[in-house]
Write a structure and sequence with these properties.
single chain; mainly alpha; about 50% helix; about 0% strand; elongated
Length: about 70
């Protein structure tokens, strides 16, 4: 769903702060979803039924997401 909304606004150039805020909110929400999917554990309010336990050994760290180079 987030990708659908991103396809409407990410490549646009807005001339007002409302448009920039919308782009920023969509970018951040997409990053949150990507990070959550990479994490193979449950932590805080991020609960996964397929990984119900917290795994500090493998996941007590930051997740780095980089923009693909073209």
């Amino acid at each position: 769903m987030i990708e659908m909304w991103c396809s409407y606004v990410i490549d646009k150039e807005f001339s007002n702060p409302v448009g920039w805020e919308l782009q920023n909110m969509l970018i951040v929400s997409r990053l949150i979803v990507v990070s959550a999917r990479k994490r193979k554990e449950s932590r805080g309010v991020h609960h996964r039924t397929d990984y119900p336990k917290t795994d500090n050994i493998h996941w007590k760290k930051h997740i780095v997401i980089k923009k693909p180079t073209s």
